[in-house]
Amino acid sequence: MTSIGILGAGRVGGNLARKLAATGHHVTLSYQRPEEETAARAAGIDPRIRFADQRTTAGTSDIVINATPGRTALGRLTDLHAQLTGKILVDVSNATRDADDGLPGELCYPGSSLAEQLQAALPGTRVVKTLNTMLFTVMTAPGSLATPPTAYLSGNDENAKKTVVDLLGDLGWQSAWIEDLGGITTARATEAMILLVPHILRRHGFQPFAVSVAR
Predict the structure, then answer these.
(1) Which of 9, 70, 79, 101 could cross-link to 93 by cystine, CB 3.0-4.6 Å?
(2) What is the DSSP secondary structure assignment for residue 181, as one 8-state letter?
(3) 3-state DSSP call for residue 196?
(4) Is the pLDDT of residue 208 over 80?
(5) How far is CA 149 from CA 61, 74, 167, in A?
């Protein structure tokens, strides 16, 4: 199985770590501060999951998932350029500035996207954008929705995207639910979808949902 490093030990990172560890992958979950590891262990995270700092996590994993806050991810991951060189970087975050109620208010990179910024800053890394158009619980339980959801893919490297498709399969995604949009510039479309999300959350609360294509 693949060694997978997850940057970010919050709800998104922890949720992905549990599912991927359960499917047999060797998972390392990173933290910025030691208390994040303590909180994750207290929450009953899978004992098979290893913990490490972000530099060690990126350097010792074949595939790295960015589940850190999108607003600060570019600087954080650029600092890890040596550890990320030659790796597949799966970006599941959205770079937004918060509205007054704490929900996403506006994009940090209008006319671009976090994924494009990461690819430009990390030319030796193969960036693939996916799973950023849904509540975090749907990432690992797509079959829980009444309507089949869509996981969009954006990335310049076809082999990297094929690897990510396999990873999505381990998370429960059927091939018919995965939509390859093309190169990394297409990530600006899916990242812009986040502007729809706060309106849904304000009306319906944090119920599982995905912004999907219906056919």
Answers:
(1) 70
(2) E
(3) coil
(4) yes
(5) 29, 28, 16
Q: What confidence tens digit (pLDDT) does each residue in 95-121 have?
A: 999 988 988 999 999 999 999 999 999
Cα–Cα nearest to 77, from 56, 97, 94, 55: 55
Q: Is 107 helix (H, G, I), strand (E, B) or coil?
A: strand
Give Cβ neighbours of residue 118 (< 8 Å, ≥ 6 apart): 66, 73, 74, 77, 89, 91, 125, 127
Predicted model pTM: 0.94
Question: What type of residue is 11?
Answer: R
Domains of the chain: residue spans and CATH: 3-204 (3.40.50.720)
Helices (H), the chain: 11-22, 34-42, 54-59, 70-78, 81-84, 114-121, 136-139, 158-170, 187-192, 197-204
Give the strand order in the sheet containing 126-129: 50-53, 26-31, 3-7, 63-66, 88-91, 126-129, 151-155, 178-182
Amino acid at 71: R
Burial environment of residue 109 by CB neighbours within 10 A (0 to 12, 13 to 18, 19 or more): middle
pLDDT tens sequence across 143-163: 999 999 999 999 999 999 999
